[in-house]
């Protein structure tokens, strides 16, 4: 005796479901299953935004209804629906909204910035990624405490209010999300206004002798020094009677009465200027007579 088993005809029906949202990492393989059965076995087709998804390039639509991404690309983002149909009807899974996670990409960067003490400065750094990257900052490899009021971080970078010399250093912005991590570096250089520390030299000179002044100044970058007398700029003369040195020195040979006056030293750099002045007196040559 033999038995003939037959399957009961049945319209397609759902045996499971997929999540409404799926975050897939870019560059990795992934397979979407389609849990629909029926008899006769239904044809299983996938649609993205109303358009049938067919085997092409990195995507394979398998006969068993699975949809394979090898690998996942950003262009795969969208809403997918699997539909099963046979002679007795059709049914569809709930839509699956696929997002593709990709590592942060740097879109804006300030590599090196120079700022004067007391000024406010912005270090520009911005990332693009999905999901939106979380951005942190470090200085000289130590994480910055962005809760301090002098720091303000936003999507475009980091603002530092009233910079000080201690703020100078190498800054790193780090963007991270489920797709990975990216980072970039920029150096902040603090410029200090010049300060004329001192003007040294004899201020009472005999006629015919030489006047020597030395101006000492500090600042970042190192300031350029110039001299003036009674408001008029001094420069080296062709006969070398007056020599203005690059080291902050001034030499006036064979001084005469007209060389008396107010001599000023001015220090200048990109952060500003400073100056000091001294009064130089000229006296007649002292002669001695033998009695």
Automatic annotation (TrEMBL):
Statement: the UniProt record of this protein carries the keyword Repeat: yes
Record-linked InterPro entries: Ig-like_dom, Ig-like_dom_sf, Ig-like_fold, Ig_I-set, Ig_sub, Ig_sub2
Cellular localization per UniProt: Membrane
Residue intervals of the Ig-like domain: 12-99, 104-189, 194-279
GO MF entries: cell-cell adhesion mediator activity
Keywords, alphabetical: Disulfide bond, Glycoprotein, Immunoglobulin domain, Membrane, Repeat
Classification via SUPFAM superfamilies: Immunoglobulin
GO CC term, one of those recorded: axon
Database matches in Gene3D superfamilies: Immunoglobulins (2.60.40.10)
GO biological process: axon guidance; dendrite self-avoidance; homophilic cell adhesion via plasma membrane adhesion molecules
Membrane-spanning segments: none
Highest taxon listed in the record's lineage: Eukaryota
Pfam family, one: I-set
Major localization listed first in the record, in broad terms: membrane
PANTHER family: BASIGIN RELATED (PTHR10075), ROUNDABOUT HOMOLOG 4 (PTHR10075:SF103)
Protein name: Ig-like domain-containing protein
């Amino acid at each position: 005796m033999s038995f003939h088993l037959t399957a009961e005809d049945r319209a397609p029906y759902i045996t499971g479901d997929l999540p409404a949202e799926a975050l897939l990492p870019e560059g990795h393989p992934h397979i979407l299953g389609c849990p629909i059965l029926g008899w006769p076995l239904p044809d299983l087709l996938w649609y993205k935004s109303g358009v049938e998804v067919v085997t092409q390039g990195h995507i394979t639509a398998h006969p068993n209804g699975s949809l394979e991404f090898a690998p996942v690309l950003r262009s795969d983002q969208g809403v997918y629906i699997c539909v099963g149909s046979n002679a007795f009807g059709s049914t569809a899974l709930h839509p699956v909204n696929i997002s593709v996670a990709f590592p942060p990409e740097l879109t804006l960067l300030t590599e090196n910035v120079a700022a004067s003490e007391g000024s406010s400065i912005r270090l520009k750094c911005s990332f693009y990624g999905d999901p939106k990257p979380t951005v942190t900052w470090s200085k000289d490899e130590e994480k910055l405490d962005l809760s301090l009021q002098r720091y303000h971080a936003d999507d475009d970078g980091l603002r530092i209010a009233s910079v000080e010399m201690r703020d100078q250093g190498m800054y790193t912005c780090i963007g991270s999300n489920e797709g990975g991590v990216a980072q970039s570096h920029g150096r902040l250089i603090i410029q200090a206004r010049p300060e004329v520390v001192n003007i040294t030299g004899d201020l009472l000179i005999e006629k015919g002798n030489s006047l020597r002044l030395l101006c000492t100044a500090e600042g970042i970058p190192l300031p350029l020094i110039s001299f003036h007398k009674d408001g008029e700029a001094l420069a080296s003369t062709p006969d070398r009677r007056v020599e203005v040195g690059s080291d902050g020195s001034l030499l006036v040979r064979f001084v005469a009465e007209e060389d008396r006056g107010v001599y000023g030293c001015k220090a200048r750099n990109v952060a500003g200027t400073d100056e000091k002045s001294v009064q130089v007196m000229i006296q007649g040559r002292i002669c001695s007579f033998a009695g």
